[in-house]
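This is your field. Have a critical look at the following sequence-structure pair:

***
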Amino acid sequence: MSLSAVFILDVKGKVLISRNYRGDIDMGVIEKFMPLLIEKEEEGTVTPILLTDSCTFAYVKYNNLYIISVTRKNVNIALVFVFLHKLVQVMIEYFKELEEESIRDNFVTIYELMDELLDFGFPQTTDSKILKEYITQEAHKLEIIPVPPMAVTNAVSWRSAGIKYKKNEVFLDVIESVNLMANATGHVLRSEIVGVVKMKVHLSGMPELRLGLNDKVLLEGTGRGKVKSVELEDVKFHQCVRISRFEDDRTIFFVPPDGEFDLMSYRLNTQVKPLIWIESVIERHAHSRVEYMIKAKSQFKRRSTANNVEVIIPVPADADSPNFKTGVGSVKYVPEQSVIIWSIKSFPGGKEFIMRAHFGLPSVVAEDSEGRPPIQVKFEIPYFTTSGIQVRYLKIMEKSGYQALPWVRYITQNGDYQLRTN
C-alpha cells in the first residue's frame, strides 16, 4: 500500500491540513472531492471510495471532518481504511477529541505525526504509545531532539527497550459477551458468543510469552481430543502475535506491548442456553391498569453467581402510578425510556426470583400487544465462560530469567440479550 497524499477537510470541503508523500499528484486535485461527493449524495450512490480520471479518493468521516487518502495506484483498499481509522485513533489519543478546533490548535504536532505514520506513502509506526515517546505536544519548549526509541528501529515496533518494573506481573482477562434472542416459549432464535482476551502487562525487558488454550484443533492434533476443548472461530490477533506460529502449531507466541491491550478476539456461532431466563405474565385491564408478574431464573451452575443483574421491562408510554413488590433487589420506573428496571446485585445459580408491578393506564386505546418490545437483561458472571474456553498455560521467558506472576480471570457478560414476551 502506498498513498500519494492525505488531506483533512472541514464539513464544507476546506483543506485544514494536507501532506504530499510521493509528489506524483497535483495537490489541487482535492478540489474535485467535495463536488463529486455532493453529486453522489444527490444520486443516492454514496460510497467511501470516489474515482476520478487522475486518482482515487478513499475517506472516512469523523465529527464533521473528512480524512481522505489520495492514490494513483491499485492499492489494497482494506489496508487504506485501516490506516485512516488508525490515523483518527492516534489523533484522538493525542488530543482527547478530534474536531476542527483541535486540528487548528495542533497542526505542528499533526504534521510531525503524519511524517512518522507514513514514509513515502508507506505505513510506518502507528502505535501512539511509541509515537508519544518522541512526538510531544510541548512544542513551545526548546529541548534537544530525542533519539527515536528502539521500537521505531527494530522489528518489535509496539514495545520499547529498557522497560523496568520492580514487580513483574501479567494480568489476563477472558471476557465473553453473550448475544441472544429467544421467544416467549424459550426457543432460542439467535445466539452467539463474542470473546476477547485482554491483557495488562507489567514486565521488564523484552519478554516472550506463550499462551496455551484448550483449542480443539491443537488438542486433537496432539492426540488429546478427549480433553474438553473449544473450536474457536473468526479469530483475530494483535499485531504482536506471530501468526505463522499459530498457523503451524496453534501456539500463541508473542512479545507483548507494555500496559493494556487486546491480545485476541474470537466468535462462536453456537446454540447458547439462556443464562438468565425471564417469564412474564402481563394482564391488561382496558382503560384502567396493567399488571406484571416477572419471574427471573438463573440457568447456570450453583457455584457461579451473576452480579449487577438488570432486567429491563418495557411498559406503556402513558403508564402512571407505579407500584412494585419484590423480595429481592430493587425496582425503579424510568418514564423517559418507558421501562421499569429490576436490579439484583447478586443472583446465584439455580435460583428463581419474582417481581410484581402495577401501573395505572389512563389511555382510552390499549396498546397493541404484538408491538411490545422485548425484555432486555444485563449481567456479569465472574469466574465463568459460556464457551468453556480455558487458559492451559501462560509461559513468560526473558533473558534475565526473572520470575513473573500471571493472573488469569474469566468473565461472562451480556451482549445484545433480548427475550420476547409474546
The radius of gyration is 27 Å. Residues 181 and 418 are 5 Å apart (CA to CA). The mean pLDDT is 87.
